[in-house]
Amino acid sequence: MTFSLHGIGVSGGIAIGRAHLVTSVALDVSHYLVEPAQVADEVARFEAAVAAVQGELKSLHSNLAHSSPGELGAFLDLHSMILADPMISREPVHIIEERRCNAEWALVQQMDALVAQFNAIEDDYLRERKQDVMQVVERVLKAMLGGGSGVHAVLSRSQRLKALHAQEGEMVVVAHDLSPADMLIFKEHQFAGFVTDVGGVTSHTAIMARSLSLPAIVALHHARELVTEDDWIILDGTEGVLIVAPDAAVLEEYKLKRRALQLERRKLRRLVSAPTATLDGVAVELHANIELPDDVKSANEAGATGVGLFRTEFLFMNRKQVPGEEEQFEAYRKVVRAMGGQPVTIRTLDIGADKQLDAESAQDAVALNPALGLRAIRYCLAEPQMFRTQLRAILRASHYGPVKILLPMIAHAHEVDQALAHIAEARAQLDAAAIPYAPDVQVGGMIEIPAAALSVGLFVKRLDYLSIGTNDLIQYTLAIDRADDQVASLYDPLHPAVLFLVANTIRAASKAGIPVAVCGEMAGEVAMTRLLLGMGLKQFSMHPAQLLAVKQRVLGSSLADTEAQVRRMLRTEDPERLREQLALLNA
Fold this sequence. Notes:
Shape: globular
Mean pLDDT: 85
Number of strands: 16
Largest sheet: 8 strands, mixed
Helix content: 40-55%
Distance between the termini: 36 Å
Strand content: 5-15%
Structural class: alpha/beta
Radius of gyration: 24 Å
C-alpha cells in the first residue's frame, strides 16, 4: 500500500531505492541490579566500551579520504570530545556504583539528564547538539551489547542488501537518528539518501547531508516504525516528502524529476567562477555561512566571495573550560587564511544563561524563558573578561586577512556602545603587548529582534554594517519556535509583518549608506532571491550547498522588473495573494 510521510527537507534532491533500517539501541535498554561483588566488573565493562568507541572514532578520523568534506573530521573530533567529557565518561560510573545497576541503564539515565538540559536551549543550532550526545551514547551502548561500537555491525547486512539489489536500485537509510560517523560509513557504501525520525535543519545529520550533497529528510517521527526493510521508497529532500511503496506511475514521474535535478546540478557547477550580477549589471555578493573552520573548503568550492557568518559557538561547546585566546585565534586565523583575502565575518559568542559553558554549573542555571533571557550580546557584556578574550583573538586574526566583527541579537543602543568600548579596550591591550592587528576592522550588528528592525536608525549611526538574521527575526515576530512541530506550520517568512521588517531594515541601511546582508535561511532559499533583490539586498550569506542555485537565480533576474513587483508585494497583506505574487515573481 502506497503512503507518504512528511518531515523537514534539509538537503535537496531525490533518492529512489530500497529502505535499509538502522536500529536504535538506546530506545530499548533494560534495567537490572547487579550484586555488590559485580559492580567493579560492570564499571570495567563500561570503561572498556568507552575506550573501544574512542579508538574507533580516532581510527575513522585518521583514515578519512582527502575528498571527504571538512565537516567530517570536525564532527568526529566533537564526538571524541563529548566522549572524553566526565559527564559521559565518568558520571555513569558513579550511577553504577551508587545504584548498583547495569552499565547500559546508567549511561542512558545520564544521557536523559543531559538531553533535558539541551532541550531548554533556545538557539536551534545549540539545541540540536543534544543529538550528538545521544549519538555518542548509542555507539557506547552498541559496544557494550556486543554489536560493535558503531554501524560496522550492520555493514555486512548493508553490503548483502547492496549486492542483492544492485540491479534494482540504490539504498536509502531509514533511522531514528544518525551520527556523522554513521553517515561517513554509509556514504562509503554508496547509500543514496537519509531519513530520520528526529533532527532539525541545524542537526549534524542535516549539515552532513548538505555537505555530502545527499537528499535527506529529518523529523519524520514514525518512519522507522512504519517503513519495512526492503520497501521501495522515494525521498524528496526538497519537498520533505517520503513516499513508501510507490506505484509504477509515481515511480516513473520521480525518476524523470531526478534526472532533471542531476542535469541541473551539473550545469550549476559551470557557474562557480562566473561573476554574480543581475541581467541589468548590478553586482551581488554571495557569501557562505560556516559553523566550523573546515567548512571553508565547501565555501571556496562553491565560489563564495566571503564568509558572511562564522558561528563561533562550536569552539565553546561540550567542554569544561572556555577556549583560551590562543586556541580561538588559531581557529579564526585558519578560516581567514583559507579564504585567501576574501572577507570573513566572525560573530561573537551567541550563548546565554540557558547555554552554560561549564557542564557542572549548567545543572544549576536554567533560564525561566531562554528565548528572552541572558543570551548573545547580553551574555557577552555580562562576562567582560570572556568577551574581551574573544575580541582580542578576532582582532589578531585580522592581521592575516580582512575580518569583520558581528554582534548578535542587538536591541538597545547602549549594548552597541558598551560592545564598542570593549573592542576599543581589546585594541588597547593588543597595542600594549605590541601584537599586530588590522586597524580597520569593521563592526556590525545582527538585526534579529523586531525592536531592532523597527528602530534600526539607532544602529546605522553606530555600526559599519548590518546583517539580518531572518531565522530569529521570524520566530520573535510570530512568537513561533520553528523546531516545535506543533506550531512549525505557522513559521512563515512571507508573513506581511516579516516582509515589512526585512524591507525596512534594508531600506534604512541603504539610506544611511552602510552595507546590509541577510544571513538567515531566507538568503539560501531560491524562491526568496528575487524578493530580497527587489527589496534592495546586494549581499546574501547562506550554506555553501545553496550558493550556486541562488547565483543562477540572480544571473537570471532583472533588478528593474523585480523592484516594481516587490513594491506591489509589500503593499499586500493577504497571505494567499502574497504567495501568488511570489510565484509570478519567480515565473
